[in-house]
Amino acid sequence: MNPKPIIKGRGAQHNVPNKFFEHTHELRDDFLEYCRKEGDEPTSNKTQYLKVFPKTIVNKVESPDVGMLYSMNIYQGCEHGCVYCYARNSHEYWGYSAGLDFERRILVKEEAPQLLENFLKKKSWKAYPIVMSGNTDCYQPAEKQFQLTRQCLDVFLKYKHPVAIITKNSLILRDLDILKALAKDNLIKVNVSITSLSEETRRVLEPRTATIKRRLETVRTLSEHGIPVNVMLAPIIPSINSHEILPLAKTVSEHGALSMAHTIVRLNGAIGEIFSEWIKKAMPDRAEKVLHQIENCHGGSLNDSRYGTRMRGEGKIAEQINGLVKIAKQKYFKGKEMPAFNLDLHEQTKTNQLKLFS
What we know:
The chain is an alpha/beta fold and 358 residues long. It is 35% helix and 12% strand. It has one domain (32-333): TIM Barrel, CATH 3.20.20.70. The strands form two sheets. The protein has a seven-stranded mixed β-sheet. The chain has a three-stranded mixed β-sheet with strand order 1-5-4. Helix 9 links the parallel strand 9 and strand 10. The relative contact order is 0.13.
């Protein structure tokens, strides 16, 4: 039997069962054959935007090894379609699949700016950096239509509150005016994710993200305007982008990045099945090799939930990757440093009583 063709523009190739549901849906071959004869599409590949109404927007992050304490996600699900994305599993909590649903059913929190303002005005809240996109990208395609990220940045600026951003999209440059204003008071840091210098790799691994060229231009533009940029080489996937660590580090440093960080891929929950099916279609010649090498990094399993180990892995392959990253930092980021956040300005904005700082 010939393998089914790749669904263009998507990372996941099917909807894996939701672990919280008793029943599952299956596209049977006889139904697919019927659709073929009738000239119908069995499913729609169109993205849907669904409004949701949460009561809060800022989340406390309990994990000790993700590098953030508070995060906020304006959108749930992400149209970028990165096949390895750890956030896919969170879509199951909303009643959807971690597979195609994650990319095609985007939940939109239109009240996010007001919820954020309410949070920052709390008398009990003391300024601490809040990360936008702790789960899904705040500059994914939905942002072009809803502009909620821009509105939230306006709130952060109004209340002189520190904020960090993680993104793969050059759309962030649309908000350069607000970012520059935040940067004047050391209230902003941007993390740009760049996983490869190969456009071919980017296209199959992260189908609806900005091109590598545009992301590098984004790093340069932000840096030239005084906005500190860290580049995330995340995740590093053995035999897919692991050989690019040194050239990636060199390139992003030359484009103005002040630091770099990395993780080694781990395929928890439904992501293991999603990634395995994808790589057997997209890279059949090395699929088994890649899967076995990922397992080698995580004690013989694609899944790894051990704090302190899951992000960096273990074993010979992980040691080689982590060693290369260490060399890259020493060689290309020596003398560079991300500035500290300013936590001193926010308190005065709650009462609008401006204070003089000597």
